[in-house]
Write a structure and sequence with these properties.
Layout (H helix, E strand, L loop, with lengths): L5 E6 L3 H8 L6 E5 L9 E4 L8 H5 L4 E5 L5 H6 L4 E4 L5 H44 L9 H18 L3 E8 L2 H8 L1 H16 L7 E4 L4 E7 L3 H16 L14 E8 L6 H17 L4 E4 L9 E2 L1
Parallel strand pairs: 1-2, 1-3, 3-4, 4-5, 9-10
Antiparallel strand pairs: 6-8, 6-9, 7-8, 10-11
Helix pairs in contact: 6-7
GO molecular function: diguanylate cyclase activity
Protein name: Diguanylate cyclase
InterPro entries: Diguanylate_Cyclase, GGDEF_dom, Nucleotide_cyclase, Rev_trsase/Diguanyl_cyclase
Amino acid sequence: MTTAETTISIITTDHDLIDHLQTLPGAEWQLVPAAEVKHSHPHLIDLRVQIPANLAAQAEQAPLIGLVADIAAIGEVLRSGVHEVITMADLQPICLHRAISTAQIRWQIEQMRRQQLAEARAQVQALTVRLQNEQIRDPLTGLYTRRYLNETLERELRRADREQIVLSAVLIDIDQLDQVNWQFGRALGDAVIQHLATLIGRQVRGGDIFCRYGSDELLLLLPRVSRETILHRAEQWRASVAETIIRPGTLDLQVTISIGIATFPHDARNAVELLNQAHEALYAAKAAGGNCVRLWPGAQKQTPFGA
């Protein structure tokens, strides 16, 4: 049952109906003529002449009691989306109270179901995003995964070929990571990887693709950058890492990185060659003692940096 002085909005063009409702004996509501449905308030909507096409949408906004001429129209009106139906013959205070109470309960149940459905959809969407991120984002560093790199590299090479631009692969290896893992444990090694990924990541452009390529290797794809610029940037990364003290817990750690660079189309014609040449360049940097930058040894011009 509704409480005393319940406000009921009535949607009708029949002024005689409004006068009739306002003069019903024992009525415990305040009738307010309305042109449209207002959120959450119960509405008595006159459906004796026609059923609005948007009635179901209106029923999502508030409890609706449909007024019909007789019982023959009840089924059709209920199917149209209202929460309860009342006939002209039953338009008395006790019947209207019952209809209002029923409509409010049904509307509240529908609201709860919509909220539960929205929450379930949000959970599914969040799970989908998380699963997608797990496929393309490394959980330790937040960088792209090697799987994402493999899927992206071919597309980037096609774009570079189409637009006649260079695309460079910059492979970075942490020189002392095996020693850190052996001496202090893998958790400390992970902290070093996270720190370096963040440090270098701050200096990466929006169009660059930064990946975790292996357990102790990071890889960047750099489009539209000359060899001279790449060498300069790589040297900045190398020097920045070498000068940084990493403090996981109470320890002070310093590591260095070796960097190998290969460029499409100068050094490679496809993805496999590009990655192979970047590896060869990295091996050359490691063979030189580490903490240095090397172009692919087969490049016509090689400009080493660092040690």
